[in-house]
Specification:
Helices cover about 35% and strands about 25% of the residues. The protein is an alpha+beta fold and about 650 residues long. Strands 1, 2, 3, 4, 11 and 12 form a six-stranded mixed β-sheet that branches. A four-stranded mixed β-sheet has the order 18-17-16-21, sandwiched between helices. Strands 23-22-25-26 form a four-stranded antiparallel β-sheet. Bound molecules: adenosine monophosphate (AMP).
Length: about 650
């Protein structure tokens, strides 16, 4: 079916703190931005005269000035009676009263609002963002809710949608949405690829070879129950933690989930880490400048901001320095290392793992039964969190998508399926374009070629080009062309702190692994030092079938010139390395050799250098000049060996 013929269905993550709207088509899901390119709408509404005066950023920024009319965390009151909401009332500065049927209501001035009415204001704002972004009217939405929401809370969410003028076509559990964003539930994990037959029955294509894949592959009937997957969704935000264990099964209208267990902690999140850093800084300041030093409320907020910024930097870097000017010539400066932070937050991470174990026990499962782990929430960007979760569940967690956006993206995927964008168009059963990395000189080394079946794996060895190089950039690319400039960047990362070694000595093993869901994991390991780094990306996102076809066509059209360009890059690099080597040997043993011979070598070097420097050298002539230089230096190499043997003999 043609997606254009259908009205797009929005995916909405209606969150406690933030809300987002997304849409999906066959190029994958994407977030729809609001005014000024904002991707996130804080779930905050300021009310005046019975209507929203400000929604989102503006309302949040001025919340302190209008504590009684700024409503936040409304999600905690959705579908709740006043009695159930008692636990959250303490920290809500606005007034909550009892409405009909003992329900919780918000009171601002003399007006009373139901939680769905407030949520509807947020939904209406997101609807207007989406309509402006797509340039058309939209009515239908998939809205997400926590897996533990009961019927009343789900109904309240539907009511909010209706009040916002939306047709809520489905309510989806947040963890299920996160899994859908990664395509989990569409495809069988272990044995191959699931597709639908013309008669509607499901078929399984087991490990089809690329050439077989072109025609109509032989089908094996497969009962739908066999393709359910067990997954865990680990959601660690700013203030709360949730773990959900689900069984996901693929059907015609998207995934059907069965929530096996949920666990969590409403007081566990990134804010705790900020607090630990603040406490560390304040204790050190007191130790240095005197126990009497006071921190007024204004500076407390500044400390929290410093702490959060430091924490975020330590997710990317090995260390971060804070400098705080306390006035009167007192300056506090401190470098915090990632190792130090990791030690400090270990018990905090352990608390979340304990919830995970509890959820596993409740589901009567062991960690090894979990096939996939999906990471949600900003705090999952902390590398130590990712590592600990991977170790507990014995599998590398999914992190390729932005953990703040993944729920909305998945809601959009569900929306697209319901809108009639065929599932087969949303996922790929073969790798559509080759995958590789950038090598010296702007060429691409392809590790996995186009049309390889999924899952796929490839490993290759690389090394450094510069003496004593300690960092190596790994630039992951997609495309059929030979040069970086003609391929599509999928992601970049750095392998850092390799011990300095001569060029060419480090052994960097790069592994590409595309799993059954089409997620690409690229890992680089320097084998002598054991240093490692990795990245996860989704090669299919942002690529339509038409674009794949165009890129393929272009690669045929440019095949010859590309080959030449790649060959020239290789020739230049090899020539430079050869010259560097010859020069080293000349320095060592040149004086043992007749000057005419040394002159001959110099002439060869000059000739090759001419090709290196030429703008558009003839590759064949270049290659021939290198071969000549190579032959001419045999005697030099022999002299070097003789010298080495003599020196070793001494
Ligand atoms: P969420 O509630 O999902 O928006 O998550 C917000 C939390 O994630 C806050 O505590 C942020 O400080 C934290 N956070 C965001 N980015 C990072 C990062 N790169 N490293 C560590 N924590 C982060």
């Amino acid at each position: 079916m043609n997606a254009e013929a259908h009205e797009p269905i929005m995916g909405i993550d209606l969150g406690t703190t933030n809300s987002l709207v997304a849409v999906a088509d066959e190029t994958g899901p994407r977030i729809l931005e609001g005014p000024g390119g904002r991707r996130i709408l804080p779930s905050v509404v300021r009310l005046r005269d019975g209507a929203p005066e400000a929604i989102g950023d503006e309302a949040r920024r001025h919340a302190v000035e209008h504590p009684q009319r700024t409503v936040f965390s409304i999600k905690r009151l959705m579908g709740k009676g006043l009695a159930d909401a008692a636990g959250v009332l303490d920290y809500l500065p606005y007034e909550v009263v009892e409405g009909e049927h003992e329900t919780a209501r918000v009171k601002v001035d003399d007006q009373v609002f139901s939680p769905p009415q407030i949520s509807a204001m947020i939904l209406r704002e997101l609807k207007s963002w989406a309509e402006a972004a797509l340039g058309r009217e939209l009515r239908k939405a998939v809205v997400t809710v926590p897996a533990y929401f009961d019927d009343a809370q789900r109904q309240a969410t539907r009511d909010a949608g209706r009040l916002a003028g939306l047709d809520v076509v489905r309510i989806v559990n947040e963890p299920t949405a996160a899994a859908l964003a990664y395509g989990i539930g569409f495809r069988d994990q272990g044995s191959g690829i699931v597709r639908k037959n013309k008669d509607g029955s499901l078929v399984l294509h087991a490990k089809i070879k690329p050439e077989v894949c072109v025609g109509e592959p032989s089908a094996i009937r497969h009962p739908p129950s066999a393709i359910a997957q067990t997954i865990a969704v680990y959601d660690l935000g700013g203030g709360t933690f949730d773990i959900s264990i689900l069984r996901l099964q693929h059907t015609d209208s998207g995934a059907v989930d069965q929530v096996l267990s949920t666990a969590g902690d409403t007081h566990l999140g990134g804010d705790d880490v900020d607090r630990m850093i603040v406490e560390l800084m304040q204790a050190e300041i007191r130790a240095k400048f005197g126990a009497h030093i006071d921190f007024p409320p204004g500076t407390r907020q500044a400390f929290r901001n410093f702490a959060e910024a430091t924490k975020i930097r330590l997710s990317q870097q090995e260390q971060a320095t804070v400098e705080i000017d306390l006035g009167e010539g007192r300056v506090y400066q401190r470098t915090i290392t990632r190792v130090e932070l990791e030690k400090m937050i270990q018990p905090w991470i352990e608390r979340s793992l304990e919830c995970c174990r509890r959820a596993l026990r409740a589901a009567k499962l062991s960690p090894g039964d979990i096939e996939r782990v999906v990471m949600v929430g900003g705090s999952t960007r902390i590398p130590a969190v990712n590592r600990a979760v991977g170790e507990l569940f014995e599998t590398e967690p999914y992190t390729a998508l932005n953990p703040d956006e993944v729920v909305a993206l998945g809601a959009a995927v569900q929306g697209a399926i319901l809108a009639g964008v065929h599932r087969d168009r949303l996922l790929l059963d073969v790798i559509p374009l080759s995958l590789g990395i950038e090598t010296m000189g702007g060429a691409v080394a392809k590790l996995i070629t186009a049309n390889s079946t999924i899952p796929a794996r490839a490993t290759e060895m690389f090394s450094t080009y510069t003496e004593g190089q300690t960092n190596v950039k790994i630039h992951v690319l997609q495309g059929e062309r030979e040069l970086v400039k003609d391929c599509r960047t999928l992601g970049q990362f750095e392998l850092r702190n390799i011990p300095p070694m001569p060029a060419g000595l480090p052994k960097i093993e790069v592994t590409f692994l595309v799993d059954a869901n089409g997620i690409l994991n690229v890992r680089a390991v320097e084998q002598r030092s054991g240093r490692r780094a990795s990245i996860q990306v989704i090669p299919s996102h942002g690529l339509s079938r038409d674009e794949v076809d165009r890129l393929e066509r272009e690669s045929f059209e440019h095949a010859r010139e590309d080959m030449t360009a790649h060959r020239l890059i290789d020739l230049r690099l090899n020539a430079q390395l050869d010259i560097r080597n010859i020069r080293k040997q000349l320095d060592r043993v040149g004086s043992d050799l007749p000057p005419e011979y040394v002159k001959q070598i110099e002439d060869h070097i000059a000739a090759v250098r001419g090709f290196i420097d030429a703008e558009n050298p003839d590759a064949d002539a270049f290659g021939a000049a290198m071969t000549k230089m190579d032959h001419a230096t045999i005697r030099l190499a022999e002299a070097a060996i003789t010298r080495t043997l003599r020196e070793e003999g001494n």
